[in-house]
Amino acid sequence: MGRMKVLNSPTIRRMPCYLHQLTRLRLEGQSHISTTELAKDTATELIVVRKDIALTGAKGRRRIGYEINELIAKIKDYLGWDEMMSATLLGVGSLGSAILGYDEFALYGLRIESVFDSDPEKIGKVIRSHEVYDIASIKQRLGYSTPDIAIICVPAANAQEVAELLVEVGIKFIWNFSNITLKVPEGVVVQREVIAGGLAMLSVKRKHYKSGDLKNIE
What we know:
The chain is 43% helix and 17% strand. By secondary structure, it is of the alpha/beta class. The protein has 2 domains: 9-79, Winged helix-like DNA-binding domain superfamily/Winged helix DNA-binding domain (Arc Repressor Mutant, subunit A, Orthogonal Bundle), CATH 1.10.10.10; 85-196, Rossmann fold (3-Layer(aba) Sandwich), CATH 3.40.50. Strands 5-6-4-3-7-8-9 form a 7-stranded mixed β-sheet. Helix 7 (156-169) links the parallel strand 7 and strand 8 (173-176).
């Protein structure tokens, strides 16, 4: 199996923003929305919103717009969030603990079912309602029920070793928060999140702002 490539990545990254806004409007009692309203609410160009929504297969009605419940369902289906995904998390340091405490994962179809660490002081403790297991027992604990996703929050020096262990367990999708590019076999998908990348973008925009180059800070 070759490496998998998902097209329309910018569209995929915008979809949760639409979903968040639609969910908020539904809670406020609104039943329909136009792409013009959605574009304004999410600070996104109208043509971009229209193209994104078209990809979901949702059908709007002239002068009425899109039925919010249907649009939410279509976006969740597009993202694969219409069914719950199981996950295991590796590393409960500051970042891992913060991820465990993020309550909105359930809205996005993600349920963290197991947590592992190698620190003797953390093993056996309950962190954010999750008991921490010894990573040495991961094959035994996950061997008969492999999670859909693994979330790596271990230090960069240990990330490759952990990734190889996850591959042995049979996990095909890895969400990597360690600051390292993982080497994995073909057929295993890694989504790398570089937190410093967002800070770098903001810092560069600030630099342009201070120099008076306002056209490059949007």
